[in-house]
Amino acid sequence: MQPKRQMKNIIKMEKLKEKWKELIIDNPLRDVYYEEFGYKHYDYYDSEGYLIEYAIENIAALDNYIVQCEKLKKIMDIKNLLILSMVKGIGPSCIKKNRGRILHDNSCESIVQDIKPTELDNLEYYASVSERIISDCVSNDIKIIGINDSAYPRQLLEIGNPPSVLFLKGNESLLSNVIAIIGTRHSTDLGNKIAEKVGCYFSNHFSICNGLVEGIDEHAIYHNGKVVNNVVGIISGGLLYQETCSSKHIRIIDDVLNAGGLVITEFYPRQKEDKYSGSKASRIQAGLSQGLILVQSTLDGGSKYTLATFSKLPRTLGVIHYPQSKEYFSEIFEANRVIVEKSKSGLASMLELKSDKSIALSSIMPITGKNDYDVFKAKVLMTKTALF
Fold first, then answer.
1. How far apart are CA 230 and CA 223, in angstroms?
2. Which long-range contacts (CB under 8 A, 24 or more apart) does 224-229 make?
3. Cα 334 to Cα 347: distance, rounded to the nearest angstrom
4. Residue 221's domain spans which residues?
5. pTM for the full predicted model
């Protein structure tokens, strides 16, 4: 090649590279995909310059190619996670531990080979079930988020066994600032009134998270017969909830979604709730919430399942303390009294722990009235800043 022509090519190449640097600032993935994109359209390029030039000339087509590839990659990641969640002997803790490997492997076969080789013959069946689940979600406007997705709630990764896949309907933006308000399903009039007041106040500052069941959960999210703003419901059945949940539950879920709230589950769209799914789902409430308020509970109440997970996190627990009422000294408030009186050791007693060493809470504070609401709010926001 003549020196003059060679110099022109060098100058052209330098200009192309400068232009390319500007374009990849807007979208760094362009630098990841441009070669693959070029080779998809032409069989052979004899220099990097031609690939860059082609990408610059067809930047809109490249961006569309990137979107399609990333979408496919997410679907494959979700499919692998769903398959792994069906493998007997591979649970959420194991998937969390191996999530980096899952992201970079094209299939989950090698992980199953290493951890549970006896399940290899079942992978084809699990893959077909996973495809049906994904199809159900697409057909019914259900969003799926895998544990490797940037949209997966960071605070939920703090628990030991986060769900490998979440199914969502509604307003995802509500996940950024969450507290849980929980208590017994067998609530009293006093418990219900307190739940309504607490829920009404804190819904102006946080998203309110609970299981959307009767009792304290329900009263914490309704005010004057309507669902308050910013409700995040964790349900114990699939998101085709008309066929997976009880009639009472269906009504509340409908109200939450119609009010602009969010409903989440880890269960497949057509999976029906059962007597164990509620306690399993409670760890999601705990993991999503930067703070938690216990309104009313017996020592052996279902609230202990949410508290068992929440107690292992360095977050703030508020406990309703209402000694002005005789009812407060009855069995229905026993968990509240024990935790307020004995703090971590009281909570350990409720959770049937031998000691309180595993309780990592940053604060346990009694809530006796409105004056304590702002204190609790400040503690939660301070904990959130430190953690996230």
1. 13
2. 226/255, 226/259, 227/255, 227/256, 227/258, 227/259, 227/261, 228/199, 228/200, 228/203, 228/259, 229/203, 229/204, 229/259, 229/260
3. 11
4. 171-387
5. 0.83
Q: Which amino acid is at 355?
A: S
User: What's residue 40's pLDDT?
Assistant: 72
Averaged confidence pLDDT in the chain: 89
**Residue 82: CB atoms within 10 Å:** 23
Enter the tokens of residue 294: 């216990």
Task: Return the structure tokens found at 346.
Answer: 């009281």
What is the reported pLDDT for 198?
97
Let me know whether 192 and 294 are in one domain.
yes
Give the total number of structural domains in the chain: 3
pLDDT of residue 83: 93
Same domain for 226 and 359, yes or no, is yes
Whether 133 and 164 map to the same domain: the answer is yes
Q: Where are the alpha helices (DSSP H) in 122-276?
A: 123-139, 189-202, 216-221, 241-244, 247-258
**Same domain (yes/no): 292, 159:** no
204 and 242 co-located in one domain: yes
Can you give the pLDDT at residue 19? 83
> Beta partners for 144?
167
* Whether residue 184 sits in one domain with residue 270: yes
- Core vs surface per residue 227-250: b (16+ CB within 10 A) or e: bbbbbbbbbbbbbbbeebbeeebb
Whether residues 263 and 373 share a domain: the answer is yes
pLDDT in tens, 176-197: 899 999 999 999 999 999 999 9
Question: Does residue 139 sit in the same domain as residue 187?
Answer: no
- From residue 381, alpha-carbon distances to 25, 128, 353, 377 in Å are 34, 44, 29, 6
Question: For residue 184, with 0-12 CB atoms within 10 Å meaning exposed, 13-18 middle and 19 or more buried, which class applies?
Answer: buried
In one-letter notation, the amino acid at residue 155 is: Q
**Regions of the chain with pLDDT less than 50:** 44, 387-388
CB 33 within 8 A of CB 72: no
